[in-house]
Design brief:
It is built from ten helices and 19 strands. It is an alpha+beta fold. The N and C termini lie far apart (57 Å). Its EC number is 2.1.1.77.
């Protein structure tokens, strides 16, 4: 018989051996908090084209524990409404809530540099598992968590109550923070944002830390860690790669419709210096989002199966279309912004500088803008004005 306490201890030991888990207090929390409790009523397992529902009540207890402690991200909601207990057979859908893999959860909590007296705001309660880990150390009164989806918030709150935590679980838009319990020593976001909202900076006391994933693509996003200063700004760095679901208020509407019609008239056409296939790699994709914020990267195919790649910026009504010709690519650009010119400029400068990784990127947040840069490379500097 598989024992839940044994599985928790095994997971903690594994994360310690991998260098992810370092703090004794967090190991104690991992060994005490039952992740399986926060996966109820069930999860969806990825089967390629479909999601297979697996419920706590309908699954062998040993198998349920194996799923809970396999260090995987587990989808708990599809399309903003469907849970595993309401799906009798494999289904299609878009994940809208999940239990993030414990490796990422632990890594982010470690990055907060918590001490026992800290007051934390969590953006994106999700299942409530990471909330529980922090409550175990800080106490329930020092953790405030905000979840935009009322059903998700209710399930998380019930799971927290079931293991003895009466937390401050707030249903609302986490991009607004939660002013009534500010200021906070730490803010952690378990969703991706296009930019760090200045409301978070305003609600963090000087010396406090904000940790969150920045970017709007499904890949090529970075974990930003900034410290708030006395002057009302926040400065820090991208400390690593990170991937989370987009905050619902900032979710990107996929480019739809006849792409050939939208790219029929181009202002320029030339051979691409850099292949668009580079955007399939993490750091080039991150740099592309810095160079052309608001643009989406779209993959499609002709009727004969040959690949097509596009960059679209709906707000600026600009596009770049890439057409393969053997080993080279032709880029057609239209609209007021030559999107690929800006991306190529960034990628060539990055390559010339030795292709530094994402943790070389610095970030400064002010009320008016986000400034990104890489030290020593003047051409890799972008300032995004906040509307």
């Amino acid at each position: 018989m598989t024992d839940a306490a044994f599985e928790r201890s095994r997971m903690a030991a594994l994360l310690t051996s991998r260098g992810v888990l370092k703090s004794p207090w967090l190991r104690t929390a991992l060994e005490a908090v039952p992740r399986e409790q926060f996966l109820r009523p069930g999860v969806f397992l990825d089967e390629g084209r479909n999601w297979r529902p697996v419920t706590a009540l309908g699954t062998d207890p040993e198998e349920w524990l194996r799923i809970a402690y396999d260090l995987d991200t587990l989808t708990t909601q599809l399309d903003g409404r469907l849970t595993a207990d309401r799906a009798g057979e494999p289904v299609t859908g878009v994940p809208t809530s999940s239990s993030t893999d414990p490796t990422t959860v632990v890594g982010m909590i470690e990055a907060l540099d918590l001490t026992a007296e800290h007051h934390v705001l969590e953006i994106g309660t999700g299942t409530g598992y990471s909330t529980a880990l922090m409550c175990h150390y800080l106490g329930e009164d020092n953790v405030t968590t905000v979840e935009v989806d009322p059903q998700v918030a209710a399930r998380a709150d019930a799971a927290l109550e079931a293991i003895g935590f009466s937390t401050w679980t707030v249903t609302g838009d986490g991009l607004l923070g939660h002013p009534p319990r500010a200021p906070y020593d730490r803010i952690i976001a378990t969703c991706a944002v296009r930019r760090i909202p200045y409301t978070w900076v305003r609600q963090t006391q000087p010396g406090g830390i904000i940790l969150g994933t920045v970017g709007s693509w499904p890949w090529g996003t970075g974990l930003a860690k900034v410290t708030v200063g006395d002057d009302g700004t926040a400065e820090g760095a991208i400390v690593g790669r990170s991937s989370f679901m987009q905050a619902r208020a900032q979710a990107v509407t996929p480019v739809a419709g006849d792409l050939s019609a939208r790219t029929a008239y181009a202002d320029s056409e030339r051979t691409a210096v850099v292949s668009p296939l580079a955007l399939g790699e993490w750091m080039p994709a991150f740099l592309a989002q810095l160079a052309v914020p608001g643009a989406q990267f779209v993959r499609a195919a002709r009727a004969d199966g040959s690949p097509l790649q596009y960059l679209f910026d709906p707000e600026r009504e600009s596009f770049a279309e890439f057409i393969t010709e053997g080993e080279s690519w032709t880029v057609r650009q239209g609209g007021p912004v030559a999107l690929w010119d800006d991306v190529e400029h960034a990628l060539v400068a990055w390559q010339d500088a030795g292709s530094p990784d994402i943790d070389a990127v610095r970030l400064r947040v002010t009320k008016a803008s986000h400034l990104y840069w890489i030290d020593g490379i003047p051409s890799l500097r972008w300032e995004h004005q906040l509307a």
